[in-house]
Amino acid sequence: GKVELARTIQDVVDAVRPLIEERGVNITTDVRPGVTPVTGDRDQLVQVIQNLVDNAVKYTPKGGAVRISLEPAASVEAARAPSRSGVGLSLLSPDAPEGQAFVVIRVTDDGPGIARQHLPRLSERFYRVEGQRSGGTGLGLAIVKHVVNRHRGGLTVESAEGEGTTFSVYLPLAPAVAAQA
Ligand code: ATP
Ligand code: MG
Question: Does 72 contact ligand 1 (Cβ within 6 A)?
Fold first, then answer.
């Protein structure tokens, strides 16, 4: 169906805000008005946003800041070459449509960052960075990648050690039939 991402992001953030603030992390949203709804699976996209926010909050120390934004993207080209500090990973669905408008959801934190050598394996199931102060089972990003693929989108990770991490989810306005169920 049609998914109003601005609304979806706000719902997810509102639901987790008390828990997040209890942890001493500040969360802000920056949602451009008038972003076109995407066609997709709302429950799956909620999971994507929840997993990225969960990570940003979980791996960011007390006093840190998490920011989630939504904006239009003219195409998926920007997803091919993430550039923050030159350290990045781009996972593009093989059937991401060319020459079509996308939207991009970004989740940015000012936490520890992710060392370069871990980036290629991050979205593998059960993959976790050693020595992380807290964590789960290592499934969150595998789910994110799976859902992004089903929506013919793209996922990028830009990270700098000691500075923070940005995950960006690119979604085409009209994805594969498989994702519309
Ligand atoms: P789960 O999501 O199943 O609870 P998890 O958070 O450990 O477990 P993923 O969400 O797949 O698993 O993340 C994989 C690993 O990537 C994490 O264990 C962590 O080491 C690293 N990571 C993910 N997001 C961040 C982030 N925002 N900052 C620093 N490291 C991160
Ligand atoms: Mg996680």
Answer: no
Rounded to 5 degrees, what are φ and ψ at 2?
A: -80, 130
Predicted TM-score of the model (pTM): 0.92
CB count within 10 Å of CB 20 equals 19
Q: What is the pLDDT of residues 154-164, one digit of tens each?
A: 999 999 999 99
CA-127 nearest atom, ligand 1? 14
Any idea how long the chain is?
181
For 139, list phi and psi in degrees, rounded to 5: -100, -20
Tell me the CA–centroid distance for residue 181 and ligand 1, in Å: 28
What residues sit around ligand 2, an ion, with C-beta below 5 angstroms? 55, 140
SS3 56: helix
Read off the pLDDT of residues 88-97 as tens digits, 9 standing for 90 and up.
788 899 889 9
Question: What's the token pair of residue 71?
Answer: 């904006």
Ligand 1 neighbour 120 (Cβ under 6 A): no
Q: How far apart are CA 113 and CA 88, in angstroms?
A: 11
ipTM of the complex: 0.99
